[in-house]
Amino acid sequence: MTRREIQGKFDEIVDFSGIERYIDTPVKRYSSGMYVRLAFAVAAHLEPEILIVDEVLAVGDAEFQKKCLGKMKDVSGSGGRTVLFVSHNMAAVATLCNKGLLLKNGKVEMFDSINNVITNYLSHAKIESDGFIRFDGTEKERFGEKQYAKWNSVELLDEKGNTTDLFAMGEKMFIKLEADIFKTSDDFEIGIGIGNLHEVFVHYLISTWEGVSSINQKGKTEIKVEIPKVLLFPGHYLINIWICIKGAYYDDAIHNAINFKVEEGKLNEHDTYFERFSKNTQVYTHSKWTIS
After folding, report:
1. Spatial contact of 113 and 98, defined as CB atoms under 8 Å apart
2. Does one domain contain both 83 and 142?
3. Count of domains for the chain
4. I need a labelling partner for 155 at 20 to 30 A (CA). Which of 23, 74, 239, 267 fits?
5. Burial, 18: exposed, middle or buried (Cβ in 10 Å; 0-12, 13-18, 19+)?
6. For the domain that residue 175 is a member of, what is the CATH number?
7. Which distant-in-sequence residues (6+ apart) come within 8 Å of 106 by Cβ?
8. Residue 65 has what DSSP assignment?
9. 130 and 273: one domain?
10. Domain containing 139: what range?
């Protein structure tokens, strides 16, 4: 960027960065967040053919992150330029990108549509020969005191009892959990959250809502939850699980414990319409209409 171009865009860059009050402060005294804000503001007002952005949304408040996403969408959309966006923020990646490149140990693991790549990326759990998902205690998105209980496994079953990660709309689903119970209690809360790849959660299954709160035996305990009909639109979904003492802390909680896919099925009589609207909503609700 030439000196003349900098002068022409100076006010716009400073305004975008949100650090007007500190613009006369030497950069060496900036915090890392302020430095990255200013750096992205400058980069966003360049006009390169390819803009590479690495984890810019790790800094700044919600308003700044929203501005960053908006600017990148403008650059790649109306600007007609290429944005290579590197991030672990799946919601931002899914919003901004249409193609994804997954790297593992410095090598290309996958190049595909963004939804398929995100699904692959989220599949971190180890699948053992018995079909269970086992946790090795190293998950970065696992937390809890583990004083009362600890999750061992989660498994998805169809109505025939077969392990699967693929369900059709209208089918029955079972979620089978296994936990080690260290202390018994009448105040357990067991929770299951089902969300899409944007991490927007569309279903919550809570044991206490169904009057279940007591576990009166120590050791390995199996918990089975039945969903009579899958009412989710076709797409990829993830499941969070937690167990806690009501009104207290999470004893063991795992984000993205398992994921699954929903395909067209019994509820879907109008395929093209379902495909069209499934991009904007997740849950199908049957309704009866009368026009008179």
Report:
1. yes
2. no
3. 2
4. 267
5. middle
6. 2.70.50.60
7. none
8. H
9. yes
10. 126-277
